[in-house]
Write a structure and sequence with these properties.
Elements lengths: L22 H10 L4 H13 L4 H17 L3 H18 L5 H6 L2 H15 L2 H16 L5 H7 L1
């Protein structure tokens, strides 16, 4: 009797711990992010190298947002949003980064705004408030999500 071979769709394996583009590297880059452009660029490059594992990479980004908000690291919050912005603008809608970020960006922005308000960081609030407008102009997210973020 012949048994048909079942092919399972396999998820790609995560890169090994020493490889560029692994979780430890991504986490280390995110932990170093602040408002400076060099740290933002390093964070966005690390996330882009993690592109085969977008949901996991964005989950790590979101976790870093919550940790920075809890510890009132407002400059880091802004930098992490700049990382997301850089990835979203460099890949556009063609790649599905926006689809994955759309699932968590609203909650992450709310937590960040609350932390900045608590710290009295009105300049950071103004910078964060500009991002949804940029995403709307560049058609990164659906208009309804941009309205929610604004």
């Amino acid at each position: 009797m012949h048994h048909p071979v079942r092919h399972r769709q396999m998820q790609p394996a995560l890169p090994p711990p020493g490889a560029v583009g692994n979780e430890n590297d991504l986490l280390r880059r995110f932990e170093a992010v602040d408002h400076r452009q060099d740290t933002v660029m390093a964070g966005s490059r690390a996330l882009l190298l993690f592109s085969r594992f977008k949901p996991r990479g964005i989950a790590i980004w979101q976790q870093q947002i919550y940790q920075a908000a809890q510890s009132n690291q407002t400059q880091r919050l802004l930098g992490l949003f700049y990382v997301a912005n850089d990835v979203l603008l460099s890949t556009g809608a063609a790649d599905n980064w926006a689809e994955h970020f759309a699932r968590c960006i609203s909650a992450a922005l709310r937590v960040s705004v609350t932390a900045c308000e608590r710290a009295g960081q009105t300049d950071l609030l103004e910078r964060m408030a500009r991002l949804p407008g940029i995403w709307r102009e560049r058609l990164i997210f659906q208009p309804a999500l941009c309205d929610e973020l604004a």
